[in-house]
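step=encode ok
step=design start
structure_in=
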């Protein structure tokens, strides 16, 4: 009888601890977190035509959203510079916020981090194999899908960021031309 009572007490303590952790997580990650929204099409085009530089901007904007929301003293700039060391934490925060808002899809922040870093460092490969690194944005599409879902729940009127302004079109045109020249040089035409 005493053993059953001790087990019951232990289970109640574990339940109380879980409730307390859930409460604390909701205080830290409330449902109002809005991240940097961008349509998948725009994300892909900008990532390719800027040779991955848009991804640094994307990381910066998401870290900036976290800093603004949590009031933390993080540096979005340095978190974006040291992207390989901080991206996993960002992916976890985004997934957690999206799940709080009812996101049913799952992704593994660890695997996304692994594939993102693996693809990003392939630029060191010899010609023409380095071209594979231009697809480093692919693992980030799952994260962006979670962001767009999260933002739609937090703010039904959120800006979808799917339009191409004149400045963005200029970046795409210049980046596309450079990409074309680089590819022609790589394949020897």
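sequence_out=
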């Amino acid at each position: 009888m005493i053993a059953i009572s001790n087990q019951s007490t232990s289970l109640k303590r574990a339940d109380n601890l879980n409730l307390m952790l859930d409460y604390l997580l909701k205080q830290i990650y409330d449902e109002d977190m809005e991240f940097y929204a961008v349509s998948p099409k725009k994300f892909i085009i900008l990532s390719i035509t800027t040779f991955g530089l848009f991804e640094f901007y994307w990381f910066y904007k998401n870290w900036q959203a976290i800093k603004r929301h949590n009031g933390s003293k993080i540096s979005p700039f340095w978190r974006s510079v040291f992207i390989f060391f901080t991206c996993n934490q960002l992916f976890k925060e985004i997934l957690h916020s999206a799940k709080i808002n009812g996101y049913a899809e799952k992704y593994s922040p660890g695997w996304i981090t692994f594939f993102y870093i693996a693809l990003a460092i392939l630029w060191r490969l010899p010609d023409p194999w380095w071209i594979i690194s231009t697809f480093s944005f692919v693992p980030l599409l799952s994260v962006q899908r979670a962001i767009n879902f999260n933002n739609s729940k937090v703010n039904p009127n959120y800006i979808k960021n799917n339009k191409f302004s004149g400045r963005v079109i200029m970046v795409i045109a210049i980046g596309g031309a450079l990409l074309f020249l680089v590819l022609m040089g790589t394949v020897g035409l």
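step=design ok
step=annotate ok -> DSSP finds eight helices and no strands in the chain.
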